[in-house]
Amino acid sequence: MRFWPFGGDKDEGGVEFASRVVTARAVDEAIVRAKITVTFEKAVARERADEIADGAAAALRELFETAKRGGDLLETEEGLGINVLESLDGKGVRGVEVVALHLVGDAAQPPPTRQKLSSHPPPTGHRRMSSSQMLAVRDSRLIPEGASPEVAADAIVPLLRDAGTRALIGLLRGYDLTVVRHVELDPRQSGDFGELVPQSTAAPGRFAEDRAEELSRWESKLGPERMQALETEADTVSCFFLHKNLTGSGVDPKTALTILERSAAGAFEGGQPLAGLPRYLQGAQESAFELASRALSILEADPKRAEGLRAAIVPTLQSLQDDFAFVAQQIMLGGKRS
């Protein structure tokens, strides 16, 4: 049975890929974080997919923990993926993708040297997956070194636009699960929903087009006004994560504001996402619960479902956090410090 009735995902026969976010400390105590996605040769049962994905995450974590310097791991995503893939030999894995690798917190400093963990080419059948996270690592730099705030903002626009779409789809699918289907979720089970939002196969900035059929079905069910309100809220929380990472990473405040305003104007129409930003900046509730509560209010659904919806959307919001942490790191390394 199709689990997501409004989507176009082919999940009847099992799971075709699984993802995890891995965080670990290198020998020098630098905190390293990245997202790893395992693609299977053919669809497998979800339990089997989880088992293999957990093994891949453990292998990547070990590579992080044995690195002498966390900074030396930057820009080694392809080599890391190859190393993890080799550890999964014989398990029906077609490819392993490591994306959005970055240092967390004060450790985000440019390393003196960067070396690949593996110099041999990817094995036959290794396919680089296209996703919104891939935008952050498609080239050696997302933000050109020494770029002006305006150039940096323009480079971020596709990522920010896709982030809004990811947040929207996460909300809709979480609503389907927790409200429409009345599934009771344990808030501690957030890690089970890493695949709630599918990876994009479209060009950067066009994830909404990739999911047009699903979004159209939701609009027919919910109505255009509610759908627009949910879209605005999803865009707002995406702007929040961009702002949070820019200001929290040491980017000059004026530069951060310029980048936020210009990128939001390029990604979203009407300026409404920025108008709603204070709710997340000044709100007493953490961002996932605030978003869940707002969505349920828009949909006139039972507010008691907020905790369950929050649990469903946390992994999606974590992926936004990871992407924009990478963006902030690139800007900071480019010299835009406070």
Average pLDDT value? Answer: 80
In terms of per-residue confidence, which ranges show pLDDT below 50 for 5 or more consecutive residues? 1-12, 106-140
Question: What proportion of the residues form beta strands (DSSP E)?
Answer: 5-15%
**Major sheet summary line:** 3 strands, antiparallel
Q: From the helix content, strand content and strand pairing, which structural class follows?
A: mainly alpha
SSE inventory with pairings:
Layout (H helix, E strand, L loop, with lengths): L14 E11 L5 E14 L1 H21 L10 H11 L5 E12 L44 H32 L26 H4 L1 H11 L1 H25 L4 H15 L4 H4 L1 H6 L4 H12 L7 H28 L5
Antiparallel strand pairs: 1-2, 2-3
Features:
338 residues, mainly alpha, Tetrahydropterin Synthase, Chain A, three-stranded antiparallel sheet, globular, disordered N terminus
Short overview:
The chain is mostly helical.
Structure description:
It is a single chain. The protein has 338 residues and is mainly alpha-helical. The chain has two domains: 15-128, Band 7 domain (Tetrahydropterin Synthase, Chain A, 2-Layer Sandwich), CATH 3.30.479; 149-333, no CATH class. It has helices at residues 46-66, 77-87, 149-180, 207-210, 212-222, 224-248, 253-267, 272-275, 277-282, 287-298, 306-333; strands at 15-25, 31-44, 93-104. A three-stranded antiparallel beta sheet has the order 1-2-3. A hairpin with a 5-residue loop joins β1 (15-25) and β2 (31-44). α1 (46-66) packs across α2, α3 packs antiparallel against α11 and α6 (224-248) packs antiparallel against α7. The longest helix has 32 residues, at 149-180. The chain is globular.
